[in-house]
Description:
The chain has helices at 4-9, 28-35, 57-62, 74-83, 101-104, 120-129, 143-150, 160-166, 207-219, 225-228, 230-233, 254-265; strands at 24-25, 46-49, 67-71, 91-93, 110-114, 136-142, 169-177, 182-183, 190-197. The N and C termini lie far apart (59 Å). It is of the alpha/beta class and 266 residues long. Helix 3 links the parallel strand 2 (46-49) and strand 3 (67-71). The longest helix is centred in the C-terminal third of the chain and has 13 residues, at 207-219. Strands 4-3-2-5-6-9-7 form a seven-stranded mixed sheet, with helices on both faces. A two-stranded antiparallel ribbon has the order 1-8. It has two domains: 4-197, Rossmann fold (3-Layer(aba) Sandwich), CATH 3.40.50; 207-265, rRNA adenine dimethylase, C-terminal domain (Helicase, Ruva Protein, domain 3, Orthogonal Bundle).
Amino acid sequence: xxxxxxxxxxxxxxxxxxxxGQHFLKDLSVAERIAETLSPIPDLPVLEVxxxxxxxxxxxxxxxxxxxxxxxxxxxxxxxxxHYPELKGRILEADFLQLNLSALFPGKxxxxxxxxxxxxxxxxxxxxxxxxxxxxxSGMLQKEVAERLASKPGKKxxxxxxxxxxxxxxxxxxxxxxxxxxxxxxxxxxxVIRATRNxxxxxxxxxxxxxxxxxxxxxxxxxxxxxxxxxxLGKENEIASLPVFDKRPExxxxxxxxxxxxxxxx
Length: 266
Protein backbone atom coordinates (compact mmCIF):
# COMPACT_ATOMS: atom_id res chain seq x y z
CA UNK A 1 0.00 0.00 0.00
CA UNK A 2 1.18 3.53 -0.74
CA UNK A 3 3.07 5.08 2.17
CA UNK A 4 3.40 8.79 2.85
CA UNK A 5 6.75 9.05 1.07
CA UNK A 6 5.28 7.58 -2.09
CA UNK A 7 2.33 9.90 -1.73
CA UNK A 8 4.64 12.92 -1.74
CA UNK A 9 6.56 11.76 -4.79
CA UNK A 10 3.96 10.48 -7.19
CA UNK A 11 3.14 13.95 -8.54
CA UNK A 12 6.57 13.98 -10.17
CA UNK A 13 5.67 10.82 -12.08
CA UNK A 14 2.08 11.42 -13.16
CA UNK A 15 0.72 14.82 -14.02
CA UNK A 16 -3.01 15.57 -13.89
CA UNK A 17 -4.58 15.75 -17.35
CA UNK A 18 -6.71 18.79 -18.06
CA UNK A 19 -8.58 16.91 -20.78
CA UNK A 20 -9.89 14.48 -18.15
CA GLY A 21 -10.72 17.18 -15.64
CA GLN A 22 -8.16 15.76 -13.21
CA HIS A 23 -7.23 17.50 -9.96
CA PHE A 24 -5.28 15.09 -7.76
CA LEU A 25 -6.06 15.27 -4.06
CA LYS A 26 -2.85 15.60 -2.04
CA ASP A 27 -4.15 16.12 1.51
CA LEU A 28 -4.25 12.78 3.32
CA SER A 29 -6.53 14.04 6.10
CA VAL A 30 -9.19 15.04 3.57
CA ALA A 31 -8.87 11.68 1.81
CA GLU A 32 -9.34 9.88 5.12
CA ARG A 33 -12.47 11.92 5.89
CA ILE A 34 -13.93 11.08 2.48
CA ALA A 35 -13.26 7.36 3.03
CA GLU A 36 -15.11 7.55 6.34
CA THR A 37 -18.28 8.81 4.62
CA LEU A 38 -19.15 5.19 3.82
CA SER A 39 -18.84 4.07 7.44
CA PRO A 40 -22.64 3.90 7.96
CA ILE A 41 -22.71 1.02 5.44
CA PRO A 42 -19.65 -1.10 6.33
CA ASP A 43 -20.46 -4.44 4.76
CA LEU A 44 -21.08 -3.74 1.07
CA PRO A 45 -18.58 -3.79 -1.81
CA VAL A 46 -17.33 -0.38 -2.95
CA LEU A 47 -16.66 1.03 -6.41
CA GLU A 48 -14.26 3.99 -6.42
CA VAL A 49 -14.61 6.26 -9.45
CA UNK A 50 -11.48 8.02 -10.72
CA UNK A 51 -8.90 6.91 -8.12
CA UNK A 52 -6.03 8.65 -9.93
CA UNK A 53 -2.97 7.57 -7.99
CA UNK A 54 -4.76 6.13 -4.99
CA UNK A 55 -4.81 8.86 -2.35
CA UNK A 56 -8.39 7.94 -1.40
CA UNK A 57 -7.90 4.29 -2.36
CA UNK A 58 -5.36 3.67 0.37
CA UNK A 59 -7.82 4.63 3.12
CA UNK A 60 -10.61 2.53 1.63
CA UNK A 61 -8.24 -0.44 1.75
CA UNK A 62 -7.22 0.41 5.32
CA UNK A 63 -10.91 0.30 6.19
CA UNK A 64 -11.03 -3.26 4.80
CA UNK A 65 -13.50 -2.41 2.06
CA UNK A 66 -14.14 -4.93 -0.70
CA UNK A 67 -12.87 -2.47 -3.29
CA UNK A 68 -12.98 -2.20 -7.07
CA UNK A 69 -11.74 0.94 -8.83
CA UNK A 70 -12.52 2.33 -12.29
CA UNK A 71 -10.06 4.72 -13.95
CA UNK A 72 -10.04 6.07 -17.50
CA UNK A 73 -6.46 7.39 -17.49
CA UNK A 74 -4.04 4.66 -18.59
CA UNK A 75 -1.09 6.28 -16.76
CA UNK A 76 -3.00 6.20 -13.49
CA UNK A 77 -4.04 2.60 -14.15
CA UNK A 78 -0.39 1.63 -14.62
CA UNK A 79 0.52 3.40 -11.39
CA UNK A 80 -2.27 1.70 -9.45
CA UNK A 81 -1.25 -1.72 -10.78
CA UNK A 82 2.32 -1.07 -9.68
CA HIS A 83 1.56 0.24 -6.19
CA TYR A 84 -1.56 -1.65 -5.13
CA PRO A 85 -0.99 -5.39 -5.61
CA GLU A 86 -3.98 -6.06 -3.35
CA LEU A 87 -6.19 -4.63 -6.12
CA LYS A 88 -5.01 -7.14 -8.73
CA GLY A 89 -7.89 -7.93 -11.07
CA ARG A 90 -10.03 -5.15 -9.59
CA ILE A 91 -8.59 -2.14 -11.42
CA LEU A 92 -10.82 -1.37 -14.39
CA GLU A 93 -9.50 0.82 -17.20
CA ALA A 94 -12.86 2.16 -18.31
CA ASP A 95 -15.30 5.06 -18.35
CA PHE A 96 -17.63 4.79 -15.35
CA LEU A 97 -20.46 6.32 -17.38
CA GLN A 98 -20.23 3.44 -19.86
CA LEU A 99 -19.98 0.62 -17.31
CA ASN A 100 -22.61 -2.10 -17.10
CA LEU A 101 -22.98 -1.97 -13.33
CA SER A 102 -25.41 -4.88 -13.21
CA ALA A 103 -22.82 -7.14 -14.81
CA LEU A 104 -20.04 -5.85 -12.55
CA PHE A 105 -21.88 -6.21 -9.24
CA PRO A 106 -24.45 -8.99 -8.76
CA GLY A 107 -25.81 -7.37 -5.60
CA LYS A 108 -25.82 -4.03 -3.78
CA UNK A 109 -22.70 -1.84 -3.61
CA UNK A 110 -21.58 1.69 -2.72
CA UNK A 111 -19.95 4.33 -4.94
CA UNK A 112 -17.30 6.82 -3.83
CA UNK A 113 -14.75 9.10 -5.46
CA UNK A 114 -12.99 12.39 -5.92
CA UNK A 115 -15.13 12.96 -8.98
CA UNK A 116 -13.99 14.75 -12.16
CA UNK A 117 -15.85 18.07 -12.08
CA UNK A 118 -16.83 17.90 -15.73
CA UNK A 119 -18.93 14.74 -15.27
CA UNK A 120 -19.91 14.81 -11.59
CA UNK A 121 -23.62 15.41 -12.24
CA UNK A 122 -23.64 12.62 -14.83
CA UNK A 123 -22.09 10.28 -12.28
CA UNK A 124 -24.90 10.92 -9.82
CA UNK A 125 -27.53 10.44 -12.51
CA UNK A 126 -25.99 7.08 -13.40
CA UNK A 127 -26.18 6.20 -9.72
CA UNK A 128 -29.83 7.26 -9.82
CA UNK A 129 -30.47 4.87 -12.71
CA UNK A 130 -29.13 2.08 -10.49
CA UNK A 131 -30.77 3.32 -7.30
CA UNK A 132 -32.14 -0.04 -6.14
CA UNK A 133 -28.61 -1.46 -6.07
CA UNK A 134 -26.65 1.55 -4.79
CA UNK A 135 -27.76 2.41 -1.22
CA UNK A 136 -25.01 4.98 -0.73
CA UNK A 137 -22.92 7.26 -2.94
CA SER A 138 -20.49 9.80 -1.53
CA GLY A 139 -17.51 11.83 -2.60
CA MET A 140 -16.07 15.17 -3.57
CA LEU A 141 -17.28 17.44 -6.33
CA GLN A 142 -17.52 21.12 -7.15
CA LYS A 143 -19.13 23.04 -4.26
CA GLU A 144 -21.70 24.65 -6.53
CA VAL A 145 -22.86 21.23 -7.78
CA ALA A 146 -22.86 19.79 -4.25
CA GLU A 147 -25.06 22.65 -3.04
CA ARG A 148 -27.42 22.05 -5.95
CA LEU A 149 -27.76 18.34 -5.17
CA ALA A 150 -28.32 18.89 -1.44
CA SER A 151 -30.43 22.07 -1.59
CA LYS A 152 -33.87 22.24 -0.02
CA PRO A 153 -36.96 23.99 -1.44
CA GLY A 154 -36.87 27.76 -1.32
CA LYS A 155 -33.12 28.01 -1.85
CA LYS A 156 -31.49 29.54 -4.91
CA UNK A 157 -29.53 26.34 -5.61
CA UNK A 158 -32.68 24.18 -5.59
CA UNK A 159 -33.41 22.93 -9.09
CA UNK A 160 -33.84 19.99 -11.44
CA UNK A 161 -31.04 17.85 -10.04
CA UNK A 162 -32.18 18.57 -6.46
CA UNK A 163 -35.69 17.26 -7.11
CA UNK A 164 -34.83 14.28 -9.30
CA UNK A 165 -32.14 12.96 -6.95
CA UNK A 166 -33.91 13.77 -3.68
CA UNK A 167 -36.94 11.82 -4.86
CA UNK A 168 -34.86 8.69 -4.19
CA UNK A 169 -31.91 9.76 -2.00
CA UNK A 170 -31.39 11.71 1.21
CA UNK A 171 -28.47 14.01 0.41
CA UNK A 172 -26.16 15.47 3.05
CA UNK A 173 -23.69 18.28 2.48
CA UNK A 174 -20.85 17.10 4.74
CA UNK A 175 -17.96 19.56 4.48
CA UNK A 176 -16.24 22.13 2.27
CA UNK A 177 -12.74 21.67 0.80
CA UNK A 178 -10.50 24.50 -0.41
CA UNK A 179 -8.55 24.42 -3.70
CA UNK A 180 -5.16 24.29 -1.96
CA UNK A 181 -5.47 20.54 -1.24
CA UNK A 182 -5.30 19.66 -4.94
CA UNK A 183 -2.65 19.45 -7.63
CA UNK A 184 -3.27 21.54 -9.64
CA UNK A 185 -5.50 23.76 -7.47
CA UNK A 186 -8.89 24.15 -9.20
CA UNK A 187 -10.40 27.58 -9.69
CA UNK A 188 -13.40 26.57 -7.61
CA UNK A 189 -14.08 25.37 -4.07
CA UNK A 190 -15.04 21.73 -3.55
CA UNK A 191 -17.38 19.93 -1.19
CA VAL A 192 -18.07 16.40 0.01
CA ILE A 193 -21.61 15.02 0.03
CA ARG A 194 -23.30 11.73 0.82
CA ALA A 195 -26.43 10.40 -0.87
CA THR A 196 -28.24 7.64 1.04
CA ARG A 197 -31.13 5.74 -0.50
CA ASN A 198 -34.41 6.66 1.15
CA UNK A 199 -37.35 4.35 1.84
CA UNK A 200 -39.28 5.20 -1.32
CA UNK A 201 -40.20 2.10 -3.36
CA UNK A 202 -42.50 3.73 -5.89
CA UNK A 203 -42.61 7.34 -7.00
CA UNK A 204 -46.39 7.50 -6.79
CA UNK A 205 -46.79 8.99 -10.26
CA UNK A 206 -45.73 8.48 -13.86
CA UNK A 207 -41.92 8.78 -13.58
CA UNK A 208 -41.39 9.92 -17.15
CA UNK A 209 -44.00 12.65 -16.80
CA UNK A 210 -42.55 13.62 -13.41
CA UNK A 211 -39.17 14.27 -15.04
CA UNK A 212 -40.84 16.28 -17.80
CA UNK A 213 -42.81 18.40 -15.33
CA UNK A 214 -39.73 19.11 -13.18
CA UNK A 215 -37.47 19.96 -16.10
CA UNK A 216 -40.08 22.10 -17.85
CA UNK A 217 -40.88 24.01 -14.66
CA UNK A 218 -37.26 24.86 -13.87
CA UNK A 219 -36.39 25.78 -17.43
CA UNK A 220 -38.21 29.04 -16.68
CA UNK A 221 -37.70 29.11 -12.94
CA UNK A 222 -38.47 32.82 -12.48
CA UNK A 223 -41.97 32.36 -13.79
CA UNK A 224 -44.95 30.95 -11.96
CA UNK A 225 -45.82 27.34 -12.74
CA UNK A 226 -48.87 28.55 -14.63
CA UNK A 227 -46.53 30.19 -17.14
CA UNK A 228 -43.54 27.85 -17.07
CA UNK A 229 -45.77 24.78 -17.59
CA UNK A 230 -47.95 26.38 -20.24
CA UNK A 231 -46.68 23.97 -22.90
CA UNK A 232 -47.89 21.02 -20.81
CA LEU A 233 -51.14 22.59 -19.70
CA GLY A 234 -52.39 23.46 -23.14
CA LYS A 235 -55.39 25.71 -23.62
CA GLU A 236 -58.33 25.81 -21.22
CA ASN A 237 -56.94 23.22 -18.83
CA GLU A 238 -59.02 23.60 -15.68
CA ILE A 239 -56.21 22.56 -13.34
CA ALA A 240 -54.39 25.80 -14.24
CA SER A 241 -56.66 27.62 -11.80
CA LEU A 242 -55.35 25.64 -8.81
CA PRO A 243 -53.37 27.68 -6.23
CA VAL A 244 -50.22 25.56 -6.75
CA PHE A 245 -49.79 27.17 -10.18
CA ASP A 246 -49.29 30.55 -8.50
CA LYS A 247 -46.00 29.24 -7.07
CA ARG A 248 -42.56 29.17 -8.63
CA PRO A 249 -40.82 25.80 -9.06
CA GLU A 250 -38.24 26.31 -6.29
CA UNK A 251 -41.11 26.55 -3.77
CA UNK A 252 -42.27 22.97 -4.36
CA UNK A 253 -40.99 19.94 -2.45
CA UNK A 254 -40.47 16.56 -4.10
CA UNK A 255 -43.84 15.40 -2.75
CA UNK A 256 -45.55 18.47 -4.20
CA UNK A 257 -43.99 17.81 -7.60
CA UNK A 258 -45.33 14.24 -7.41
CA UNK A 259 -48.78 15.56 -6.56
CA UNK A 260 -48.54 18.09 -9.40
CA UNK A 261 -47.60 15.35 -11.86
CA UNK A 262 -50.67 13.37 -10.82
CA UNK A 263 -52.79 16.45 -11.49
CA UNK A 264 -51.68 16.39 -15.11
CA UNK A 265 -52.67 12.74 -15.42
CA UNK A 266 -55.94 13.20 -13.56
